[in-house]
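Hello forum,

I keep getting stuck at the same step: I have a sequence, I want structure tokens, and every attempt I make locally crashes halfway through. Rather than fight my setup again tonight, could one of you with a working pipeline run this one for me? It's a single chain of 354 residues.
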Amino acid sequence: EENQRKFPDFVANKSSLGCLHAVVGTIPDDFKWSADLVGMKGTIAQGQGEVEEVLAYAKKHDDFLFEEETIAMYSFLLLHLGNAGDEAWQRIRSLKLVPATNSLACFVQANIAMHTAHTDEAIKLLLNRPKGAAYHPFYFLDFMLGIAKLEHGDSDADTYLQSYVRNFKGRHYIKECYQKLAWNAFLGGNMTSFHNNMELCKGRGAESQEADKKALKEAKSGLLPNLPLLRARLYFDGGYFLKAKTFLTGYTEKTFKTPLEKLEYTYRLGRIYDKLADNTNAITYYLRTIETGKDNPAYFACNAALQLGLLYEGGKNISQSRSYYLLCLSISPSDYKDSLHQKAKAGLQRLKKV
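Reply #2:
Ran it on my machine without issues. Output:
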């Protein structure tokens, strides 16, 4: 902000400032003190508008050095705060950089591909990423490829996940990686490897990221995953919605033994029907999930409320959308609360523009 005051004609500053303004407006309550501490304020509309100013400037000036960077930043804003995944995917594919010769371009495109049901494209990008002594090692790309292959159902997912935990010297996503290695072993019927990786999940890596916290909690529980729910979840996360639906065909809520498994079953069906544009069934299963799970520490009811907010927002039913975003904010699950609440806040801000 000081830089903007001192150099108002330096357009590139607005790309970073715009991202900050957009994020500040959706900071979860647990972290609002950090923004208050430095006196930062902002909204998604304000931030998005500032980044769009930079993009408009870039179109008129061929020598603008920061066009590719700004397109990448704008794509992530659209994806995570703008509820515009398809547009984010189209924007990121317009980048002139070549993922096969640029590791960062590969990361950006593959990351958005995996968030927008283009996992097949992500796998191709990551398999063809730059390699060799001429390039700085980017081990997170191995982690991403392992996840993508796990979601696709490939048996060699563990090759890339093992590469990440073997080579990466940092702290983040280590626990999640061991969890995913355990899942891969479980799906393949290798229970010895499953338990070994869950033990490694307990002892290695940090638990500051939400995904790492969730992985550690699962490892400490000592519970086995439910095979059909796990496989359906992975197919869904990879964007293989029909496969996920087919995998759960023949099961009913009564099939599952524990209240948590029954709750996850209704939640998974809601998510699947939502992505298949079967709104009637999606709403039915989301409401069932909220009804039975709003007091459960699992994140299913909280996310069901968020997804209903998104569904009604897409249908221009503003009052219903707002009520479910607020319901999402009223539920405090033990996992993913911060990210779910941030998305609900982003939704409420978008509704103000309608």
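The first helix runs from residue 2 to 6. If your local run keeps crashing, start a new thread with the error log.
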